[in-house]
Amino acid sequence: MDSITVEKTYEPRFSSFGTSFIGPTLSFFAANLVSYTSEETTLFFLAREGYWLDKAYKSYIDGRGGKRGSHYLLASRAFMFKVLLNDSRSYSYSLKSDFTGSFFDFMRTRFLLSNTEIQTIFSDDITQGLVSLPKDKEKIVGILINHKNGIDAAINPTKEAYLAYLDSLGVTSQSTLHLVDLGYSGTIQSLLTILLNKNTFGHYLIASKSGEHTVANKTAVMKGYLKEDMKIGDGYLPLDRSMFLESLLTAPFGQFRGIKFNTFDQTKFDFYYGRKVTSQRYFYELEQMMYGALKYCFHTGKHQIKFTNDELEMLLNNYLSKRNMIPSITKHIFDIDDDVTGNGTVNALEFFGLA
Fold first, then answer.
1. pLDDT of amino acid 339
2. 317: exposed, middle or buried (C-beta count within 10 Å: 0-12, 13-18, 19+)?
3. Residue 5 — φ and ψ, nearest 5°?
4. How far apart are CA 119 and CA 166, in angstroms?
5. Residue 7: per-residue pLDDT
6. Distance between CA atoms of 288 and 15, rounded to whole angstroms?
7. What confidence tens digit (pLDDT) does each residue in 104-139 have?
8. CA-CA distance, 8 to 4, in Å (whole number)?
9. Residue 13 counted as domain residue
10. Which value, in Å, is the radius of gyration of the alpha carbons in the chain?
11. How many domains does the chain divide into?
12. Does a structural domain hold residue 151?
């Protein structure tokens, strides 16, 4: 049986949609990364979106000619919250989103602690108690600080393996770590700045907080190539409806949740992921869509075709606001999970009334 990677297996209904919808966005982002960074700069593409952003960047470089360094880097907000659970500098990020429920559920969903880890670290009186954020933030901080020894024992093996993984990619050897993500507030960048005690530069399609920031006495710069200093709810459609891009720009696996040293080879790692959403279960269809987008990136790199910000915004606004622009055959691919905030799986088309 032919592999899905064989060109003839790609159906036009998927690849052509990928070319017209995702292709220009990926090409625009890649072109700006090339223009703004030097050939010696190694870029690290973050989270699930980084899986395809890295491939698009490489396709654009291949079309353009030349060679630049880049790596896909496994990271997620919840995982970073976990490995920094014993570092109070991270609490301004991990305790920011609203929550109401038991302390047990809070530690399980927000910090990815297992049932056994929670029961080992905290007493039943604590785990069964109800907490609400932001009201109980100081109370939660106090609990975490008072149980630091137990938290250390639970997360240090994971943190040690993750730091070794980052070192294997060349992350720790960077004087300034250049990170790439779709957007928006730079939470993972800030957490990596804390974890590695290193200056970072975040390259985003949309940056809600652009400019230079001080994070744990280090410098974190955030730059948005399409738009800067816009927040969700400000009326900027590509950001307000960013769920569309996030649902398609996803890796084949679920949320990154853990890492361990391989039992038989300590130089290798075993990775652990959460449940898959629909776009990941039907990843072969998403691959067909992205096949068209990556070919488009190669083409624009080869012929030096560039979109202006206004042109890309006009294209995205049409796709994100008109019911008949997105083929109905692709509806199921627009699922995204929002486990950190406790919203489960959300379909972008249904959420915005375009299904």
1. 53
2. middle
3. -80, -10
4. 30
5. 45
6. 5
7. 999 999 999 999 999 999 999 999 999 999 999 999
8. 9
9. yes
10. 21
11. 1
12. no
Residue 95 lies in a domain: no
Q: Is the peptide bond before 57 cis (omega within 30 degrees of 0)?
A: no
Q: CA–CA distance from 202 to each of 193, 224, 328 (Å)?
A: 11, 8, 35
Are 165 and 92 spatial neighbours (Cβ–Cβ below 8 Å)?
no
Q: Are 51 and 45 in contact (CB under 8 A)?
A: yes
Q: Tokens representing 306?
A: 């560039």
* Cα 250 from Cα 245, distance rounded (Å): 9
**Would you say 18 and 26 are in contact if contact means Cβ atoms under 8 Å apart?**
no
Q: Take residue 318 and report the two structure tokens written for it.
A: 């049409």
Q: Which two tokens stand for residue 39?
A: 């050939």
281 class by beta-carbon count within 10 Å (0-12 exposed, 13-18 middle, 19+ buried) = middle
N-terminal to C-terminal alpha carbon distance within the chain: 34
Task: Please report how many Cα atoms fall inside a 13 Å half-sphere around the Cα of residue 41, on the Cβ side.
Answer: 18
Does 197 reside within a domain?
A: yes
Cis peptide before 134 (omega within 30 of 0): yes
For residues 345 and 354, the answer to whether their CB atoms sit within 8 Å is no
Which residue range(s) make up the domain with 231? 7-77+162-351
CA distance 303 to 199: 35
The DSSP symbol for 264 reads: S
Tokens (6 digits) for 238: 């590509």
- Joined together, the tokens standing for residue 235 give 């009326």
- Specify whether the CB–CB gap between 215 and 305 falls below 8 A: no
Q: Please, which pLDDT band fits residue 352 given cuts at 50, 70 and 90? A: confident
Amino acid at 188: I
> Within 13 Å, how many C-alpha atoms sit on residue 309's CB side?
8
pLDDT tens string 306-349:
999 999 999 999 999 988 888 888 888 887 765 545 556 788 88
Strand partners, 180: 45, 203
| Backbone dihedral region for residue 71 (phi beyond 0: left; psi -120 to 50: alpha; all else: beta) | beta
303 residue type, one letter: H
